[in-house]
Amino acid sequence: MQIQVNGEIRDIADGQTLSQLIEQLGLTGQRLAVEINREIIPRSEHAEHQLRANDKIEIVRAIGGGQPEAIQ
51: closest CA among 16, 26, 25? Predict the structure, then answer.
């Protein structure tokens, strides 16, 4: 199925969770903020949040000084 991550279309497996996507992107263990379809998803829900076709996901990570940086 297809999703959009920070404006880029990606193909992922059906039933993939947000945690699996974060791992696939190499972002595990980083301080992230994730929004799916304009709704913030708390870190505590990443493991059980299943992604759906056409989800629009925005991921930003905090860098030095707390400034957000969009993931490419």
Answer: 16
Could you tell me if 55 and 3 are in contact, meaning their C-beta atoms sit under 8 angstroms apart? yes
- Residue 38 CA: distances (Å) to CA of 56, 59, 64: 8, 11, 25
* Dihedral sign (CA 41, 35, 57, 33): negative
- DSSP H or E run through 2: strand 2-5
Paired tokens of 41: 């998803």
Instruction: Report the distance separating Cα 50 and Cα 70, nearest Å.
Output: 22
Inter-residue contact 50 to 16 (CB < 8 Å):
yes
pLDDT digits (tens, 9 = 90+) for 20-72: 999 999 999 999 999 999 999 999 999 999 999 999 999 998 776 655 666 66
